[in-house]
Design goal:
Layout lengths: L1 H25 L4 H20 L1 H8 L2 H6 L3
Amino acid sequence: MKKYIYLAGVGGIILIIASLINYSINNVWNIFSTILIVLGVILCGVYVVIDFNKIRIFFSKRSTVYGSNA
């Protein structure tokens, strides 16, 4: 199950990037781009909701907190 949640997060990011690439090539925001970005946001949202504790732990690490001040 954890593997599928991770794949949902990665797949969501890939879909969002694909939507933005499609828009930058065609210079038109069409239905294909809209579907890709909506699906990408949904998949990323599912990942965040299910794996929120892991994300919270990552951003509360000392290396992340002090590394963001650079």
